[in-house]
Design brief:
- It is a single chain.
- The chain is an alpha+beta fold and about 200 residues long.
- The protein has 2 domains: about 20-85, SP0561-like (Orthogonal Bundle); about 85-195, HesB-like domain (Hypothetical Protein Aq_1857, Chain: A).
- About 35% of the residues lie in helices and about 25% in strands.
- Strands 5-6-3-4-9 form a 5-stranded mixed beta sheet. The chain has a 4-stranded mixed beta sheet with strand order 1-2-7-8.
C-alpha cells in the first residue's frame, strides 16, 4: 500500500522562488520591473536594448561567462528584490516606492502628504498614469497606508489597478514611479500609455 505524499507546508510554498533561470529575460523584466536595476548592476545589459530578451536567463548568464554559483547568487538577489513588496488589497507597493515617496515628501517640504495615483484618459493608447502629491482623501478614494505614507486612488483608477504593482525605478533609461498592470491589454511604443 502506497503512503500518501506529504503536502508541502505553507512555509515551503512561500519560499519557492518566483524567478528561475529558465524564465526568459523579457518575462522577468515585464513581470518584475524592479529587477532591471539588479540585472544591469550584474552586467545583464540586454534589458535596455531588447536584443536578447527572449533568451532564458540562465543561458544568457552562462553565455556571459557566469558560473552556476554566480547565477544562483543573482537569482537569490532577484527574488529578494521582488519580495520587498507590501500588498494592499489588490495593489502591491514596493518598499522602494515607499522609500522614494518618503524622500520626495521630505525634500519637497510636503509633510502630511502622500501620493495620488491616477489612471487618466490620454496618451497614444487611451490611458496613462498620473502621479501627484495629495493630502486630502476624496469621497470616492481608496487609501493605501504603507509604512507611514498614504497612496490615494479614486474608485475608477483603483478599478484599473487591481492586481497592479507600484514601484520606483531609477536606471539610465528612466527614473520615476512605474506601474506594472496586468489589466493593460496593450500599450504604445512610448511606454507611457496603455489600453
Amino acid at each position: 500500500m502506497k503512503e500518501p505524499k506529504a503536502k508541502p507546508s505553507p512555509k515551503s510554498q512561500a519560499s519557492t522562488p518566483l524567478i528561475t533561470e529558465d524564465m526568459t529575460i523579457g518575462d522577468v523584466i515585464s513581470k518584475y520591473p524592479s529587477t532591471i536595476e539588479v540585472l544591469l548592476r550584474n552586467g545583464v545589459h540586454c534589458v535596455g536594448c531588447g536584443a536578447k530578451t527572449f533568451e532564458a536567463l540562465g543561458d544568457g548568464l552562462r553565455s556571459h561567462g557566469k558560473s552556476d554559483e554566480e547565477i544562483n547568487t543573482l537569482l537569490a538577489e532577484l527574488n529578494s528584490s521582488i519580495e520587498d513588496t507590501s500588498e494592499q488589497g489588490d495593489v502591491q507597493i514596493t518598499n522602494k516606492a515607499v522609500s522614494k515617496l518618503k524622500e520626495l515628501i521630505k525634500t519637497n517640504g510636503k509633510d502630511g502628504y502622500g501620493l495620488r495615483v491616477q489612471v487618466v484618459p490620454g496618451g497614444c493608447a487611451g490611458f496613462q498614469y498620473g502621479f501627484d502629491f495629495e493630502n486630502t482623501k476624496q469621497a470616492n478614494d481608496t487609501t493605501l497606508d504603507v509604512e507611514g505614507v498614504t497612496f490615494y486612488l479614486d474608485s475608477e483608477s483603483f478599478g484599473h489597478l487591481r492586481g497592479a504593482r507600484i514601484d520606483y525605478v531609477d536606471t539610465l533609461q528612466e527614473a520615476g514611479f512605474r506601474i506594472t498592470n496586468p489589466n493593460a491589454k496593450g500599450g504604445c511604443g512610448c511606454g507611457k500609455s496603455f489600453s
